[in-house]
TrEMBL record:
Organism: Physeter macrocephalus
GO aspect biological process, one term: microtubule bundle formation
Bias type Basic and acidic residues, positions: 23-34
Name of the encoding gene: TPPP
Residue ranges, annotated region (Disordered): 1-47, 151-179
Composition skew (Polar residues), residue ranges: 156-179
Gene3D superfamilies: EF-hand
Source domain of life: Eukaryota
InterPro entries named among the record's database cross-references: EF-hand-dom_pair (IPR011992), TPP/p25 (IPR008907)
Protein name per UniProt: Tubulin polymerization-promoting protein isoform X2
PANTHER family: P25 ALPHA-RELATED, TUBULIN POLYMERIZATION-PROMOTING PROTEIN
Low complexity bias: start-end ranges: 35-47
GO cellular component assignments: cytoplasm; microtubule
Length: 179
């Protein structure tokens, strides 16, 4: 009987109407718009070299995490950045080196690094990666490896058509029964 009471009028709509699309896409679009706003602020404050580096940082920071803001990076994404951008060369810089530098730079109780800490970590790796160059030159080289890059998506399985999966299932059954 409580349902028969008239409902109070709804307040004015404060948010724009949601698109009927996928909520994950909505989150990604919101995150990308936040990223681009942040990047334009960074570009105004710093030189173009830093904005390209920060853009790459943000792309890798949000990779694989729908809740990530792009302001901090997890160790997993740090390792991916170093692999995808060829900071890890297998001789001078290894996966272990990358993990050690991350652990050293981040705070004791933290799991992420900020953009400032990210730049410190790159300086550490630059000394190892480009031993033959001066400190400043080595840092510039590492920045060049990373600037403008985005995560490489590999190992993505393609979606099959229903007929294809039926055919594969039949083949598998035949090969098992045929011995």
């Amino acid at each position: 009987m409580a349902d028969s009471r008239p409902k109070p009028p709804k307040p004015a709509n404060k948010t724009p109407p949601k698109s009927p699309g996928d909520p994950a896409k909505d989150k990604a679009a919101k995150r990308l718009s936040l990223e681009s706003e942040g990047a334009s602020e960074g570009a105004a404050a710093a030189g173009p070299e830093l904005s390209a580096l920060e853009e790459a940082f943000r792309r890798f920071a949000v990779h694989g995490d729908t809740r990530a803001t792009g302001k901090e990076m997890h160790g997993k994404n740090w390792s991916k950045l170093c692999r995808d951008c060829q900071v890890i060369d297998g001789r001078n810089v290894t996966v272990t080196d990358v993990d050690i530098v991350f652990s050293k730079i981040k705070g004791k109780s933290c799991r992420t690094i900020s953009f400032e800490q990210f730049k410190e970590a790159l300086e550490e790796l630059a000394k190892k990666r480009f031993k033959d160059k001066s400190g400043e030159e080595a840092v510039r080289e590492v920045h060049r490896l990373i600037e403008g890059k985005a995560p490489i998506i590999s190992g993505v399985t393609r979606q099959e058509s229903p007929g294809e999966s039926r055919l594969q299932t039949t083949r598998n059954v035949q090969s098992v029964s045929g011995h």
